[in-house]
Design a protein that fits this description.
Elements: H1 2-30, H2 40-59, E1 63-70, E2 78-85, E3 88-98, E4 104-107
Antiparallel strand pairs: 1-2, 2-3, 3-4
């Protein structure tokens, strides 16, 4: 009886405790460093400045960033940005910033953006 109880205890520990513990350790270990709590404010500012600069240089647009989130998948260094053109909240913009590749910006806006008239 004691042997069966010990066997069930080992099986319980091996199959119900170890996998969640392994997942918890893995999630913390493999999260990109720029998304950790202490690094996120710097990453957020850098991504915002790079995105504003991209739209100013490539599209000749002044943009306002409304929302910024990062990917919850492991090993993905993408930051998702939503905003609008300055002075026109109806014309929305979106972009993906890859922080793993020196903050490269990809315009993912679904509409054709019209540059402001100079």
């Amino acid at each position: 009886m004691k042997r069966n109880l010990l066997r069930y205890g080992v099986v319980f520990f091996a199959f119900l405790i170890v996998p969640p513990l392994f997942m918890y350790i893995g999630m913390n270990r493999f999260t990109p460093k720029e998304f950790l709590e202490e690094e996120w404010p710097k990453t957020k500012i850098t991504a915002e400045l790079v995105t504003i600069g991209y739209f100013k240089k490539e599209k000749n647009l002044d943009v306002v960033i409304d929302k910024m989130t990062f990917s919850t998948d492991f090993f993905i260094h993408e930051i998702y940005i939503n905003g609008h053109i300055a002075g026109n909240e109806q014309q929305k913009i979106s972009a993906t910033v890859n922080s793993g590749e020196k903050y490269t910006v990809e315009d993912t806006s679904k509409i054709k953006l019209k540059p402001k008239s100079s």
